[in-house]
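Annex B.
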Amino acid sequence: MHITILAGITAILLLLRQPTVKWWPLVSRLLLSFFCFWSALMLFPADFPEAIRQWTSLIIICIALAVIVFDLLVFLSGTIVDSIRHHVPIGKTIPPFVNEIFQAVTLLAQRRIGATIVLQRKQRLDQAIKESIEHDAGVNAKILMAFFVTASPIHDGAVVIHDGRVKRVKAILPLATQKPVSMGVGTRHRSAIGLTEKTDALVIVVSEERGEISVASRGTLIKIENGKELMRLLTAGVKGKDILKMIQPKQLGL
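DAC domain-containing protein: predicted structure tokens.
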């Protein structure tokens, strides 16, 4: 009798469950059929074969377990695929806006569209950035890309992101002054170095000539070799870590 009651409760809970897979309507109809059959059995006299009652209950419970296991596998596989897509170890969460920046920067590099994105950390940037346009919007990959297309009136400045939101656009960054910079380094890279000489900000630069991605930190320019490296440094950077301790010497400079 106990297993029969458990089966009934299980069937009711599953029928109320929100569908997460396309074949759920078929499973729900199957469960409903079994539940109706089980309910009919409960109305039979007490001398009705207990074996039939128990086997029906077991079938309902087995179907329920199969659905639960399948949902668990779907959840785990989704986590694994997402982790592989973004090159982040399972269990390490990253803010959603970092994914948006990663996608935007990757596509900008592929299309060779120049861009400068500043990630403000603990220090304020008011003293270092003298000219910019105030802005306040969520970080979105498509919007970030739109800022830097040639037709945009603000494409030649930097975008400043703080606390997961775009706070400034068309920001003019100070040029490098503390260290000698190679003659082949463009204005975007010089200004990225210049801002990070004065503040603890991270600056991501996309070169329109070569389609390469660089990250500036503490007055040093880091050449990004692949998407995995970019995501690793972005994730560490927004958590306040010193990314210069995470790279190889060959990645320094251009």
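The mean pLDDT is 78. The chain has two domains: 2-86, 96-251. Further annotation is deferred to the next reporting cycle.
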